[in-house]
Amino acid sequence: MPPDSQKGESMNTGRRGFFGRGLAVGGIAALAVQHPKIAAASGGLDGKPLEVPDWTKMLGPGVTAAPYGSPSEFEKNVVRRNVPWLTVSEQASINFTPLHELDGIITPSGLCFERHHGGVPAIEPDLHRLVIHGMVRQPLVFTMSDLVRFPSVSRIHFLECPANGGMEWKGAQMAGVQFSHGMVHCCEWTGVRLSTLLDEAGVATGAKWLLAEGADAAAMTRSIPLDKALDDVIVAYSQNGERIRPEQGYPLRLIVPGWEGNVQVKWLRRIKLGDRPWQHREETSKYTDLMPDGKARQFTFVQEANSVITAPCPEKPLQAKGAYEVRGIAWSGRGKISRVDVSLDGGANWQSAELQTPVLDKCLTRFRLPWRWQGEPVFLQSRAIDETGYVQPTIEQLRHVRGVNSVYHKNSIHTWRVNQDGSIDNVQIL
Amino acid sequence: MSRFSSFVLAAAGLLAASVAAAQQRGYGIGHKITDAQIAPWNIDIGGEDGKGLPPGKGSVAQGEKLFIEQCASCHGEFGEGNGRWPELMGGQGTLKDADPRKTIGSFWPWAPTIFDYVRRTMPFTAPQSLSNDETYAIVAYLLNINDLLPADGVLDAKSLAAIKMPNRDGFIVGDPRPDVKAEPCMKDCKQGQVKVLSDLAKSLGVTPDQKPKD
């Protein structure tokens, strides 16, 4: 079909579509089907003059065509994914953030990995309550409108499931960064300091721990030391500027900066103070680290420094020789990232990458390094160092101490093998 | 009234308000609540001492019947685990093995924790539907299939808190990390060729396809 007749037809239905059908079925979807030339256009790559595309020659949808906006129709591949064989139920399961599709340090709320133990509850905020009791002077109950009246705080923090990377203790298994590292996200969280609420109830002498409990079908509980609760824990009601997404704990969750995701209890309904940990299922049977001698470490809360290169990666192979930017993310539960080194030769030689500023405490930190690929095989690695001087270890160093059955807290240096055809493999090397 | 005197009155009012605020702790936001009001949510059991275990009791025999009706479809009639659903028995002596089996009997350190977990979140599709007696009975059966309670056993708050789990001393409390100390070497950190230990990720076929879920 000659380009002009296609264009004319498209223009015609386009006008009608927008003002008629478009309004009825949703402007964006209607517009997308009005551009049949997208695949055919060569866009100047064939030596011919550029064409003026249809979308430049017709009106698009007006304001509020999408009262709550969505990503472009052409970004449908940018989604969370789960690994069906990993869990037997989708209600007690996990999915993964598409790290290979993201830039900067903020994870869009709809792409934050999900970990649920009993599915996502649909909580009416007007009916939601937070109870604080146990070893306090005065037990209190708060409504959501009570909680937003308190002095508020906003902080940008990463949140990582301690099982991130846990499928790879015994060897490289997942052919993609989404699955090897996608149990992490980073958002701005707004809420009230837990210390403010505890002060309101009055902490009794002798209280040393608290139990946080969710309102979901798992009524998820974790014990948290009072010292941490009074330090920097937030009872959050907003995520990236709007109310928290249902999957992330709407209407209320704990943010426990730098600590494993499981203690950052979602759908928070109750905080009880006591003099010892509760020894509940998620802090004994689960979320403990089994060592080679058969003993399990308990209350290993901090997420140690970690990093991964997100470009290139298996999902984003190199298309041609030439200039690239090696990009990735680093984070530490102990504070700020102070340096990230990148190796192109499997760890023999390293160079320090540029860190995107501001570098924040217990927050994803983006690193970048210019690179020119000549078509040779490369072993790409990144190594994070945090402000305590902690250096991200190799997988062999971790396995030497912890064996391969601890499930949680695998934060080793990750290796991508760049093959001569530009494809990228997940490998483990010595 | 002059502007001056109304200012004085307003200032006096503010002073009174701030005195009231000083007497009342914090911001005065939130509502008092009694233990009786909290009771329906106050379901946590202390794992170590059984604090919070309710009155009531249940036998192994009652538990077996309930377990087969309400639990066995996932966990198997004897807690062996149906398909990939969790196994709840056995595994003792496997924690150092290449494939350790972490079950109630082999791994859980505190018996009251079983009551807490079963009551708050089981059965999986109907959590918090079991009565306290039913929960005691199911916990009794779980202990029985792990050889921790005889077949004619009956469980209540006192007897459950008295049970010593086989792996009670199997935990290292407190975080020994950082337990690995790496050096940030920059030049000539390794000699010789890179040795690949594992590169099967692409061929294992366990990575989901990358198409969006419709």
Shape of chain A: globular
From the 3D coordinates, which CATH architecture of the domain at 48-162 in chain B would you assign? Orthogonal Bundle
Task: Please state how the strands of the largest beta sheet of chain A are arranged side by side.
Answer: 5-4-13-8-9
Number of strands of chain B: 5
Overall CATH architecture of the largest domain in chain A: Alpha-Beta Complex
CATH class of the largest domain in chain A: Alpha Beta
Distance between the termini of chain A: 57 Å
Overview of the structural elements:
The complex is a heterodimer of chains A (430) and B (214). Chain A has 430 residues and is an alpha+beta fold. Chain A has 3 domains: 3-75, no CATH class; 99-297, Oxidoreductase, molybdopterin-binding domain (Sulfite Oxidase, Chain A, domain 2, Alpha-Beta Complex), CATH 3.90.420; 306-427, Immunoglobulin-like, CATH 2.60.40. Chain A has helices at 3-25, 27-32, 144-147, 177-181, 194-201, 226-231, 395-402; strands spanning 81-82, 93-96, 115-116, 130-134, 140-142, 153-160, 184-193, 209-214, 221-225, 234-239, 242-243, 253-255, 268-274, 289-290, 296-298, 306-311, 322-331, 337-343, 351-352, 354-355, 365-373, 378-386, 415-418, 424-429. Chain B is mainly alpha-helical. Chain B has a domain at 48-162: Cytochrome c-like domain (Cytochrome Bc1 Complex, Chain D, domain 2). Chain B has 8 helices and 5 strands; from the N terminus they run αβαβααααβαββα. Chain B has helices at 3-23, 35-38, 60-70, 72-75, 112-121, 132-145, 157-162, 201-204, and strands at residues 31-32, 57-59, 154-156, 171-173, 196-198. The longest helix of chain B has 21 residues, at 3-23. Residues 15-23 of chain B have low confidence and may be disordered. The interface between A and B is large, with 107 and 80 residues.
